[in-house]
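New here. Your pick:
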Amino acid sequence: MPELPEVETVMRGMQIALQDRTITTTHVYRHDLRWQIPANFAQQIDGRHIVSFERRGKYIFIRLSGGLSILLHLGMSGRIVLDSPLPPAKHEHIVFVTDDGKRCGFIDPRRFGMLDLVQTEHELQHRLLVNMGPEPLSALFTPQTLAHALAHKNTPIKTLLLDQHVVAGLGNIYVCEALYRAKIDPRSVAKNLKKTDITQLVKAIRAVLSEAIAAGGSSLKDYVRPEGGLGYFQHAWKVYGRAGEKCPTCATHPHCTGVQRITQAGRSTFFCPTVQKLR
């Protein structure tokens, strides 16, 4: 599933191509995605000006004139294609056409993505976002706020960081990478982390997300950038997907056993037990 850097990259690509344009025509080829697209979706947005874009966690808001916003989630396999072809591509469920003739298509083979309409002033009260944690790149995400969220929690730190109520937008790849940078074993019990651990973890989360955004995200099986290009942060992964290899820190360490892969809460976790210490 695309994580925060990939969603941010998609949003920025859409913003460059579509902001300040007007939606002239909307084609909805099927309404039954993860949740039903509103029946009057096209009628509600046709003729509206695209004012701005905003990301919240792994969700994108497309803000329109008249105080209406489109809420978009890519799901597991969803992607945005700019200048999408005619006739519609396979699994293309919705297309926006703007006044300059640009076609923006949403393709989602597994149909786990979603689109909804919400009043702009009530965006953050949407049922999917109302209880979401702070943005990890915002001023609200500090060692103090994370320490408060971890206090008294017997949950492994890796599992807790994937909880969108704790921090918004983090996913499996970037949590693994951040824990490696902070030298924290993903199996560590959250409440056992010290103040210095949490400070290093916040710093690592911010750094890995910022670097990934600058690289255009990580290009996985289903993810490409809206203009068709590939992100390249996957080439900078230190532990994710590298089971059995030595991490960069241990490249010359004679006793390093290599990156290990375990399963936590049904997800693959990659870490280096030589570098990352259990708390």
